[in-house]
Specification:
Layout: H1 2-17, E1 24-29, E2 34-38, E3 41-48, E4 51-62, E5 65-76, E6 90-95, E7 100-105, E8 113-116, E9 122-131, H2 137-142, E10 145-151, E11 156-160, E12 165-166, E13 173-174, H3 179-183
Antiparallel strand pairs: 1-2, 2-4, 3-4, 4-5, 5-9, 6-7, 6-10, 7-9, 8-9, 10-11, 12-13
Organism: Flavobacterium myungsuense
Protein name: Tissue inhibitor of metalloproteinase
């Protein structure tokens, strides 16, 4: 009996202390409504042969509606093909426990922006906002994400999430698999 009680106490403490502290970027309340957003975290990085891809994620709470904000940044000396989000775009999250969670893109269409920097690199920046259903919160807070599949307006792409990612760009270490576990509580 002592072992069972001790095990329960350990599990509760791991669950409470497993969450990271919230870093809020924006917290605004005005006559239009309430808006709160968390700090962006690197969840995907691939650098190979003068091409690089990054995905940053954050959470947004707009008038009580939880949203996952993903920002895609691609850099290359070659032309970067546009990818677009539309009302049919979706984000599929494959959890380690075998469940698949589907997040729907807001109806706002976006194909991003192409910028050229001083090093003669093309930079394409695309931002997507995906609605999180409150009934998915428990699964997302309790199981790591192994990969995501994104349905753009014309194609699908998959990104594998690592347990730990040390950025080649800035050396910062992040935990993409545990992003939801660590930060979803910030917008509850």
């Amino acid at each position: 009996m002592k072992h069972i009680v001790f095990s329960i106490i350990i599990l509760i403490n791991l669950n409470i202390f497993g969450q990271k502290p919230c870093e809020i970027n924006t917290d605004v309340t005005d006559s239009i409504g309430k808006y709160k957003s968390t700090k962006e975290h690197l969840v995907y990085e691939k650098i190979f042969n003068e091409k690089s891809r990054f995905i940053f994620a954050s959470f947004v709470l707009t008038d009580g509606v939880p949203i996952l904000n993903l920002q895609f940044i691609e850099k290359s000396k070659e032309f970067i093909k546009a990818k677009c989000f539309d009302s049919n775009s979706k984000l599929y999250l494959q959890l380690m426990n075998g469940k698949i969670i589907t997040l729907f893109h807001t109806s706002q269409e976006s194909c991003g922006t192409l910028l050229r920097d001083t090093k003669e690199l093309d930079n394409r920046i695309l931002t997507g906002y995906f609605l999180i259903k409150k009934e998915n919160f428990e699964d997302l807070k309790n199981s790591p994400v192994s990969f995501i599949r994104i349905k753009y307006s014309t194609e699908n792409e998959e990104y594998i999430f690592k347990k730990e990612l040390k950025s080649e760009l800035n050396g910062i270490v992040s935990e993409p698999e545990s992003f939801f576990i660590n930060y979803l509580h910030c917008i509850e």
